[in-house]
Design a protein that fits this description.
With about 250 residues, the chain is of the alpha+beta class. It has 2 domains: about 90 residues; about 150 residues, Histidine kinase-like ATPase, C-terminal domain (Heat Shock Protein 90, 2-Layer Sandwich). Helix content is about 55%, strand content about 15%. The chain has 6 helices and 7 strands. Strands 2-4-5-7-6 form a 5-stranded mixed sheet. The protein has a two-stranded antiparallel sheet with strand order 1-3. Strand 4 and strand 5 form a beta hairpin. The chain is elongated and about 75 Å long.
Length: about 250
Amino acid sequence: MRRELQKKEFAILQNQTKAMLSAKKAALGDMASGMAHEINSPIQAIQLSAERLTRKMEKGTLTEKDVVSLSKIASSIRRVSGIINSLSKISRSSHNEDFQHCQVAVFITDAADLVEEKCKVNGIDFSVEYLEETDKVVINCQRLHLSQVIVNLLNNACDAVSESEEKWIRIEVSQSGKQVMIRVIDSGPGIPAKIRERVFDPMFTTKEIGKGTGLGLSISQTIIRGHGGVIRVDAHCPNTCFILTLDKEHNND
């Protein structure tokens, strides 16, 4: 009897692992798509500027303005490098990632860098606001896991408001005592009460077939709970708002 129970528990664990890997693969697909948009713009700027400067150099007509263009090329290259670096950090296997002290602004920036261009392409105003100098706050966390949570929330927000008349997404970071609160808010009308409690259920999604696994928020909740924190929908906000509450000094033992 006990052996049968162990077999069932093992089978459940295997299915959960497969589901999480499937969700991570889908999330990486979203991130890769966002990265393509992010990288395409600066690369086009680099190409056009380089071709123009090459022609002027061949004619011997380079000016001081062209030197400024070279500076812009260097800046664009640094941006591409930063985007690739962010994706590399988030997409690598982080299953056994250690808890380390990390500034809140670092993992939020990792995530924001991957979604910023997706917002631009869809005409969405995106901003991050650190209240009470929370950009300097350090917490004990798994940086890559928390970046994945933020990316998931931002991608969901982008998809939700991309067809809206008013389009904006805002991250607000605040603190109270020993806790940090991260709010991901978008211009949507909020989540209906009848499905509010179900959004964190595995396989639950309001997206069209093929556009969502229904596992993103469930996995995000697992990650946040693993940090001793809470993720919830703010029912009092007039817009759609998810709140992450994390302890600054989480004991992961």
